[in-house]
Write a structure and sequence with these properties.
The protein is of the alpha/beta class. The chain has helices spanning 3-8, 26-34, 48-61, 84-96, 111-121, 135-144, 155-163, 194-204, 218-226, 236-239, 248-254, 279-283, 296-311, 333-340; strands at 14-16, 39-42, 66-71, 125-129, 147-152, 168-172, 178-179, 209-212, 231-234, 262-265, 273-276. The protein has one domain (3-340): Aldolase class I (TIM Barrel, Alpha-Beta Barrel). The strands form 2 sheets. It has an 8-stranded parallel sheet. The N and C termini lie close together (12 Å). The chain binds flavin mononucleotide. Flavin mononucleotide (FMN) is lined by residues 17-20, 23, 42, 44, 69, 129, 151, 172, 175-179, 212-215, 233-237, 239, 320, 322, 324.
Length: 341
């Protein structure tokens, strides 16, 4: 027990990182929480009603604490963009995979409405990435006793998270898989590795610090605690467990030597995320800076991802993974938790 496990009311200060994009699973969250860690569900694509439903379904599977994660919208993302040149740019890829652009971009769920629904559902904890929750949400969470966790990629972000009244901070090093979510400085200036970031954040804030990025086994946990962290958040390691929503092809790639090479790219979603390098990333690398922001780029890539998933074609999929991916074992979440504890 330490101050993080006391705050979260969990037996072991191990957080299962949330997965966005529809690959979080209630079964994974409940398996981790039932094993004494904190299971987390990534809810950024869910409607307010779906969020209520997920919280209920998790509650039906575990009496232990868990967390729900939301992406904070970033300035300028809702601005209108002329999609025509982007669709034209992607046309050869659509043709190659035999898909057609549907002509419509589905609106992303409204963040304030998601948050309102989530607060009504009163999960034990809510985590945020890519920014800060609004003041009204922090106030409502405090009244309800919901533990709020922010995600920082720099020391400055950790300080702002603490000053905003959040209860704990995830310090996410640039080693981490998936979306990390720098929000104060450009991503290029927010690439501090976990080893450098954790002790600096631990020195800078008084709230509990959760180390994320590159932790996948007991050695990583020991190192994180030695660096001053109160706990760890593991994403890629849990992605490889039986209960995650990772596709077969994603699992296969995580277990292959390809997982030794990951890069940060915004080609799939419009926001920077770390994944295994594949043909699509190499082919479109020159366009990194030109693609429209999230959620537009995410929507434009959706038909390609769907077709590639159906074909089991790893070259066109977003294969999110952190730099420690080769350390991830293939086992159940409970077995993995046991190995970490
Ligand atoms: C497939 C995948 C999806 C992710 N989606 C989210 C997300 O929606 N929200 C979030 O806060 N973090 C997300 N992350 C980050 C993880 O929760 C966690 O912080 C990170 O994976 C830790 O680094 P590691 O991969 O080296 O363990 C994602 C990570 C992966 C691998």
């Amino acid at each position: 027990m330490n101050r993080l496990s006391s705050l979260l009311k969990i037996a072991h200060p191990i957080v299962q990182g949330p997965f966005g994009g529809g690959i979080s699973r209630v079964s994974l969250v409940s398996a981790v929480s039932n094993s004494g860690g904190l299971g987390s569900f990534g809810a950024h694509i869910l409607s307010p009603g779906e969020i209520r439903d997920v919280v209920e379904r998790i509650r039906a599977q575990t009496l232990a604490p868990f967390s729900i994660n939301l992406w904070v919208p970033q300035p300028g993302e809702q601005d209108l963009v002329d999609l025509a040149p982007h669709i034209k740019r992607l046309a050869p890829l659509y043709a190659r995979l035999g898909v057609e652009w549907t002509g419509t971009v589905e609106a992303a769920p409204n963040f304030d409405e998601q948050l309102d629904s989530l607060l009504d559902s009163s999960p034990p904890s809510i985590s945020f990435v890519m920014g800060l929750p609004p003041v009204w949400a922090v106030e409502r969470a405090k009244i309800k006793g919901i533990v709020l966790i922010g995600t920082a990629t720099t020391v400055a972000e950790a300080r702002v998270i603490e000053a905003s009244g959040l209860d704990a901070v995830i310090a996410s090093g640039s080693d981490a898989g998936g979306h990390r979510g720098a929000f104060l400085s450009p991503v290029e200036e927010s690439l501090v590795g976990t080893f450098s970031l954790i002790p600096q954040v631990a020195d800078a804030v008084d709230i509990p610090v959760v180390a994320a990025g590159g932790v996948a086994d007991r050695r990583g946990i020991l190192a994180a605690h030695a660096l001053g962290a109160d706990g760890v958040q593991i994403g890629t390691g849990f992605l490889a467990t039986a209960e995650s929503g990772a596709s077969d092809v994603h699992r296969k790639m995580l277990a292959s030597s390809d997982a030794e090479t990951t890069v940060l790219t915004r080609l799939f979603s419009g926001r920077h995320a770390r994944g295994i390098v594949n043909s699509l990333i190499r082919e479109l690398s020159a366009e990194e800076g030109a693609v429209p922001p999230y959620p537009l780029q995410n929507a434009l890539m959706q038909p390609l991802r769907k077709a590639a998933a159906q074909l089991g074609e790893s070259d066109y999929l977003n294969l999110w993974a952190g730099q420690a991916a080769p350390l991830a074992g293939r086992m159940s979440a409970a077995e993995y938790m046991e190995s970490l504890v």
